[in-house]
Each structure stands twice: as structure tokens, then as C-alpha cells.
Amino acid sequence: MTTPDGAILQRDKQTYAIVPRTPAGMLTPDVLETIAYVCRKYEVPIIKITSGQRMALVGMKEEQVEPIWEELKWKVGRATELCVHYVQACPGTAVCKLGVQDSLGFGLEIEESMYGKPFPAKVKFGISGCPMCCGESRVRDIGLIGTKKGWEVIVGGNSGPRPRIGDTLAKDLTQEEAQALIEKFLDYYRENSGKRVRISKFVEKMGIDAIKEAVL
Fold first, then answer.
1. How far apart are CA 6 and CA 4, in angstroms?
2. pLDDT tens, 127-148?
3. Could you tell me the pTM of the whole model?
């Protein structure tokens, strides 16, 4: 069976799920109305907000996948490919009284700049606007935590079967400095990691001190 583009075969081996791209979990009334219309029209049985702040439409038949994508008119939120899967971000200074940095704005910028770039394995971002870490930054491949002095960059977190708290790569960076460091680290990861080796395992193998020496 050939899986339709932008679809994920479910465990029943008969139905599919799709994950429309929703950068940093942001939605609009028009987007919500479109989702409601399409799901009613095609009788999509399950609409699930995922842990990565995305919306999965689950339970459609193979012949429904392409027409649903055509009506949604959205980009695919990658869920199986070796690339950036999502950028998870808390509200930060946009609305939260505890926020000290603009995590939402930064998250949207990172998502836009990283979308579609290939990597040795899937990459997930977590961006938090304060040390409360509501963006789950310490258990993501790349984490950012906002402080009063700037951004802390964390690498190598993982929340899977072998949970790992990420290592701090640098602190007190401006947004521009943090983004440049992330790009430099990801280039280093791409050039020195084997296929399907997640960043957490890469950091464990290389050691944070060696990584700092290479990218700082």
C-alpha cells in the first residue's frame, strides 16, 4: 500500500491522519472555520490537538486525503520525515504576566526559517518566555528559555522512552545571537551525526564540552 502524500497510515492499516502546519500552535477564526467545514463535509471522526501544538485530523479514507488537503490549502506539518517537526512555544510577553521574552514571536521566526530543512533525524523545538519553562524547552532537541538577561540555548533534550534533560549551550544571548548559535549547532549536528541519530544521542556521544568548543 502506497501512503498518500502528507498522510500517516493508522494502526488499522485502512485509515489515515494528516497534520496541517500550525506554526507555534497559532490559529485564526478563518482557519478554525475551514477545519470545521472540511471535517463536517468529509465526516472526519477525530480532531486532536497534539502535544506539539498541532492539530491532527484522524480517520479519513485514502481517497479523501488529497481532496481534504486541496480544500484546507495548508502546508503539511511534517510528522515522520527527517526534518523540523514543530516549534512549540508558550505565549511569553505576548500575553503572559510572567513572560520576560517574546517566545511566541521568536518561535514563529524559527519555524519559518527552519521549515523543510533536512536533518539526520527529526528535530523538535521548545521555546519558553520565562524560566517556568512552559514550552518544555529542557526536553526538546533544541530548547530556548527567556530570562531577564536574554536567551538560554539548550540542546539534547528528549521526552521519549529515554528521557533526557538538555544541556545548556550558552546563556544571556540576544535573539539574533541565539538564532545564529542554533543554526551553527544544527550545521555541526548535520555534518557530524549519523542518519536517524536524534540530537539527544548526538550530544551524549560528543559531550557538551566538545560541542561548545566547536560552535561557540
1. 6
2. 999 999 999 999 999 999 999 9
3. 0.91
